[in-house]
Structures are given as C-alpha cells and as structure tokens.
Amino acid sequence: MIQRFKKRLSLTITLVLLVFGVLVTTFISILLIAILLHYLGVITFSESQNQPGNEESPLLGLFNLFIICIAIGTSLTAFLSKKALNPIRKVIASIHQVAAGDFSVKVDIKGIGELEELSESFNKMTQELASIETLRSDFINNFSHEFKTPIMSIRGFAKLLQENDLTEEERQEYLDIIVAESERLATLSSNVLTLAKYENLEIVVDQAPFRLDEQIRRTIILMEPKWSVKDLNVNLDLEEVTFVGNEEFIQQIWINLLDNAIKFSYPGGSIDIRLTKSDNEIRFMIQDEGVGMDEATIAHIFDKFFQGDASHAKKGNGLGLSLVKRIVDLCGGEIIVQSELGSGSIFTVLFYSKKG
C-alpha cells in the first residue's frame, strides 16, 4: 500500500513540478520582458501613468505584454508536454503493434513509478500473449496430427483390404488395426470434447455426498484389463472417506491418473494407491515404479497434447492429465507431481475443507 502510494505521489509530484516549472519560467520571462521594454521606453512604471493623457500607452503595452506571455507560456507548455507524453506515445505505438499481431514488442520506460509499472505490466502481457499464441499454434498442430494419424491409418489399411490376394491372416490383422485405430480416434474425440466441456465450466453442479474410497475401488476394477495384461501389482490403502461433489466428474481424476500410472509402469511392477483424510484435507496418492520424468517434462506435464520425451512416449493423446488438472482446479484442490527418471512418479491430489 505504501509503495503504491509513493508511485502515485511520484506522478503527482512530477505533474506539479511540470506546471510549476512552466509558471515560474513564464513569470521570469514576463519579468525580463517587462524590464527590457521599460528599459527601451516602450512602457513605463512611473507615476505619469496616472495622468489622463498617458492612459492608452501603458494599457497597450500591458496588452502586448499579455499576448507575449500567453505565446511564451503556451509554447513552453506544448514543448514540455510533448516531452512528458512521449512515454505514453511509445505505449500507444506498441499497442498498435500488438494489435497487428506482433507480440515481441517491448516497452522500456524509466523515471516515473507508474509509467515503469505500466511498462512492466505491458511487457508481461505481451509475453503471456506470445506464450498463448505458441500454445494455440502447438495445440492446433498437435490436434491435427493426433486426428490425422489414425484416419490415415484406417484409410490405408481399408484400401489394402480391397485387394483380393490377401490371406485370411493378413485380412484379420488389417481389420484389427482398423478397429484399434477407430477406438483410438473415438477416445481422442471423447477426451477433447470432455476437456472442452470442463474448460468452459466454472461451477460444479449436481454435488452430493458419496464414498470416495469405494469409487476408487470401482475405478481400479474398471481398469483391471489394462493393469492385469502388464502383470502389475496394485496395492491399496484406502481410508473410509465421504466426499461431497459430482461423482461422475471426480471419477475422471482416478481413471486418468491410474491409466497414466499403468501406461508408464514396467511389466511386473507395482502401483501403490493411498487415500487419507484429516481435519482440513483429503489426500489421494498414486505411486508407480515406471520410467519417471525429468524436470522439463514435469513443468509441462499438464499441457494439452504434451507427452514428454519421445523416447518414452506411450500410446495416448496427452489430454488425460490436462483433464485431471482442470477438474482438480474446479474442485478447489491441488495436484502435486514428484518424479525422477528411472525412479517412477508420485501424483498427489489434495482436496481442502470438504466435509462429509
């Protein structure tokens, strides 16, 4: 508050000093001109001004002096105002560049607190806009690629099926690929629509109390075909927790986190799942013994279509964790990631002040 007051005061002082400088300069100019004109005999300050025959000359002189003073004062004000408004003009010119799509523009204004703050905020804004534009471009490119790949695959194998010299084994193989790619495309479409729905959602409706531990157990059973095929051992430690929320909404969290843990686990590994409750929070933790992540991957793990290091890429579309993050945020919670390459990952979901 004090810092903000000082910045506002500095602008006030600057403007006051500007006006004061103009007035003082104008006054000094008037005084010097009056002295010069008196010296030249154009005007006189003697008592003869009061005589009836000499009234017009001093009045005319004062009028001329008044016109000269206005001209000088106006010129000084225009000159100094132009200097004072140069930073604002820079900002306006930069705004026009941003409006034209150039987000690389920067404004550097020094000297006045408010204008420095304006330039800093402007630069942060352009940086954010540039980042958003990059994300938008990446999203479109990745989105197009993710949809195009299965479509091209389906079309390619469908054309192969039109050939008459295929064996029954080849024909079945191609059909299996088409079915798998179709399922992949359907999953991607569903995830995109779900994420779009939740991104535009601001208030969670249809909230009711339900057993969170039982929901997690049902989710694990639902995902059994995926973790059993990799011979994974799923260890549970779930406290009885009643949670108030949208049950279908919350289940998306456990489905995507468990799917992610299964996807990146080594065959024969373990997945540990814990659910605990204290007075102030509900804590869910899922830990795998998979490939893990480096710091750069962790920093972008919740970005749309981000799938980390290509050498560790798995089948997926990079939308599951974005969906999880959005749901957790809407529920007023927090998600924390801990991971190291080769040492697995731990995802912790925290919900605060949920009474059951």
From TrEMBL:
<keyword id="KW-0067">ATP-binding</keyword>
<keyword id="KW-0547">Nucleotide-binding</keyword>
<keyword id="KW-0902">Two-component regulatory system</keyword>
<dbReference type="InterPro" id="IPR050736">
    <property type="entry name" value="Sensor_HK_Regulatory"/>
</dbReference>
<feature type="transmembrane region" description="Helical">
    <location>
        <begin position="12"/>
        <end position="39"/>
    </location>
</feature>
<keyword id="KW-0472">Membrane</keyword>
<dbReference type="Pfam" id="PF00512">
    <property type="entry name" value="HisKA"/>
</dbReference>
<keyword id="KW-1003">Cell membrane</keyword>
<dbReference type="InterPro" id="IPR004358">
    <property type="entry name" value="Sig_transdc_His_kin-like_C"/>
</dbReference>
<keyword id="KW-0418">Kinase</keyword>
<dbReference type="InterPro" id="IPR036097">
    <property type="entry name" value="HisK_dim/P_sf"/>
</dbReference>
<keyword id="KW-0597">Phosphoprotein</keyword>
<dbReference type="GO" id="GO:0016301">
    <property type="term" value="F:kinase activity"/>
</dbReference>
<dbReference type="InterPro" id="IPR005467">
    <property type="entry name" value="His_kinase_dom"/>
</dbReference>
<protein>
    <recommendedName>
        <fullName>histidine kinase</fullName>
        <ecNumber>2.7.13.3</ecNumber>
    </recommendedName>
</protein>
<keyword id="KW-1133">Transmembrane helix</keyword>
<keyword id="KW-0808">Transferase</keyword>
<feature type="domain" description="HAMP">
    <location>
        <begin position="82"/>
        <end position="134"/>
    </location>
</feature>
<dbReference type="InterPro" id="IPR003660">
    <property type="entry name" value="HAMP_dom"/>
</dbReference>
<feature type="transmembrane region" description="Helical">
    <location>
        <begin position="59"/>
        <end position="80"/>
    </location>
</feature>
<dbReference type="InterPro" id="IPR003594">
    <property type="entry name" value="HATPase_dom"/>
</dbReference>
<dbReference type="InterPro" id="IPR003661">
    <property type="entry name" value="HisK_dim/P_dom"/>
</dbReference>
<dbReference type="Pfam" id="PF02518">
    <property type="entry name" value="HATPase_c"/>
</dbReference>
<keyword id="KW-0812">Transmembrane</keyword>
<dbReference type="Pfam" id="PF00672">
    <property type="entry name" value="HAMP"/>
</dbReference>
<feature type="domain" description="Histidine kinase">
    <location>
        <begin position="142"/>
        <end position="355"/>
    </location>
</feature>
<dbReference type="InterPro" id="IPR036890">
    <property type="entry name" value="HATPase_C_sf"/>
</dbReference>
